[in-house]
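Figure S4 source data
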Amino acid sequence: MGAREGVGRRRTPRGRAPEPPDTDGADDPPADPESVARTICLNLLTTRARSRAELADGLARRGVEDDVAGRVLDRLDAVGLVDDAAFAEQWVSSRHRHQGLGKRALAGELHRKGVDRETATTAIDEIGRDDERARARELVERRLPSLARHDDTVASRRLVGMLARKGYDAGVAYAVVREALSGRDAPDPSGGPSREEALDALRSAADEAADQGG
């Protein structure tokens, strides 16, 4: 009889507690939607600051209902974790300093991130005219040595094009490039346009671009 008592029982290795039965989470309470949404937002904010619109997009992609998302974002706003004005200011400062972006490019980026025009303009206006020109000058001086073998016409076109892609307006681009070219040794034009002719052509192109942009 004693030899048969253990039949049908699962034997547990010596020194190891028996494992609890697997219920597959059947008794777990459903996750609170607002807690889930809050966790999603905090995870997104861990990597970098984000605008309210970016967080709302992140919640929508994860299937969070609009009313739940709104309540959670309002609470995060109330405690200062969602602040589009602070986000815009930080974004502008970082992108202008590290990427050398001009005001036009910064305005476009903030628009794509859902920051309203007034908030974006306030942040961008923190960049003074002199600061913008100084940053543009740094970009030109960094690029200028690679253009040493080109005449002023080619060099000016490429430099202005670079600044335009960075979001600088035509007036800033022309002034900075003209100043940079006037301080370098002019290569032999070999029958090409003179330095003054090249700079005049540059100014005309800049004025035309400004008229089209305005």
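Figure S5 source data
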Amino acid sequence: MLRRLQRWLFGQADRPAVTEEQWARVEAGLPFLTYLPPDARSRLRALALEFLDQKTFHGAHDLVLTDDILLSIALQACLPIYNTGLDAYSQWVGVVVYAGDFVIPREEMDEDGVVHEYDEPVLGEAWPDGPVVVSWQPQQRTDGLNVVIHEFAHKLDMCNGQADGFPPLPADMRRADWARIFIAAYHDFCHRVDHDLPHAIDAYAAESPAEFFAVMSEAFFEVPLRLRAAYPAAYAQLKRLYGLDPAAGANPRPTHDSNPQEH
């Protein structure tokens, strides 16, 4: 199928069919998708194929992008825009995929005006109006860290300007509610990180409100019960933004006591 998919991506053929066997194989590597109801899984697949139709992929350093890699990235990339649709990604076309982490040259000016150049190893990067760069991990993590969801959450955040943790909201959501809830959650999280207190998500979220939103988005899809327990109000906002409720699918069925008692 790879050759047909590549020809389709370059406009040389009709969209190839993806077999149920292949969907199942790819989705098995993304176990958090089992939290979604069947109708959501179907819509996500359709969005993933449209995403592949609209974007140009490049494997860095001769990385061969197989069909399974492309489908996996597309499924994860479409989670943040499941509710809003692919128009949110309309201002850019490129996706660059590295095998593992990669290095990006940086420049930073100190207080004396001296510019320091250095190389920073990263797992992903997203630029306004530019490409998304992600690393491909053959073994997907299941601990709430997901570089693909993270970078595409940044892309959603950038739809109304620079990434600042305040993405465009659906018409039925109030900006004031989002700001109040996420600012409070961010301050609480930073306090926990600064004082070595337990925290529910990756400490990198304390870097900025933009990183907090992206890391919260990773956790929303991958470890929704943990996120909902730690920040229920923020989880509810993400639930409305993304139009999905992963915690409902992740929550085990309650066990009923054979002799219930009232207390």
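The domain at 2-107+114-250 is CATH 3.40.390.10 (Collagenase (Catalytic Domain)). The chain has one domain: 2-107+114-250.
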